[in-house]
Design goal:
Elements (H helix, E strand, L loop, with lengths): L5 E6 L2 H10 L4 H5 L2 E8 H10 L10 H24 L3 E5 L6 H8 L5 E10 L27 H19 L7 H9 L7 H7 L7
Antiparallel strand pairs: 1-2, 2-4, 3-4
Helix pairs in contact: 1-5
Length: 206
């Protein structure tokens, strides 16, 4: 459809980056990185285009629209990360941009029908972080059909692998994947997202 419902706000001002770091949960690396990119789901731009064609936009009020916008922002984020690394830069994706979305909307002066979905720190790192192990391949690659029969075993295997990783790098407070995930996913960890999205005109009944 060539919707292009993605925009990026490039933040280089030190004071604004410091404020973003605070809003994202005091993530100091946001303030230290020379550039912060805010990836915005942008149905304001598409609504303007549709109005110029003499019609009224409806897609931003639907679940399909939010999913489509999220997918496109994710694709954009992935490409930005790859492009930055190809230039010898380092990146840190920031989900905490949604922690206090209304304040982020005001800081970036986002119009209606837009939402700050994810951020990206771009710069050079002093020391590379240890590569964290991932779930076994068979827990996410499924041939021909989704096969859930090995998931529990793979998750248990990953818990063990991850604990070995924490021990190896000396992180005494490291948790198994299951326990760490439960701390976040057993609740709505960014509860202000829904009211902020609604105030932006992005939640409807479609």
């Amino acid at each position: 459809m060539n919707g292009q419902q993605v925009s990026v706000v490039v933040v280089q001002d030190a004071a604004r980056r410091a404020r973003i770091a605070e809003l994202a949960g005091d993530q100091a690396w946001i303030a230290r990185a020379p550039v912060f990119l805010a990836v915005i789901m942008d149905f304001h731009k598409t609504a303007l285009a549709i109005g110029m064609a003499g019609r009224q936009q409806l897609i931003h009020e639907s679940v399909e629209g939010l999913l489509m916008g999220g997918v496109d922002c994710g694709i954009a984020l992935g490409h930005m990360m790859t492009a930055a690394r190809s230039l010898g830069l380092d990146v840190v994706p920031i989900g905490g941009i949604r922690r206090n979305p209304q304040a982020m909307i005001e800081l970036l002066q986002l119009p209606d029908k837009t939402f700050p979905l994810v951020g990206l720190c771009v710069g050079h790192i002093d020391q590379a972080a240890a590569q964290k192990p991932r779930l076994p391949e068979y827990t996410f690659r499924h041939d021909e059909r989704y096969d859930a029969s090995r998931l529990a075993g793979g998750i248990a295997e990953y818990d063990h692998t991850l604990m070995q990783h924490w021990q190896k790098i000396g992180q005494s407070d490291g948790l198994p994947w299951t326990s760490n995930l439960a701390r976040s996913y057993a609740r709505v960890y960014y509860p202000d997202v829904r009211p902020a999205a609604a105030s932006q005109g992005l939640l409807g009944d479609k």
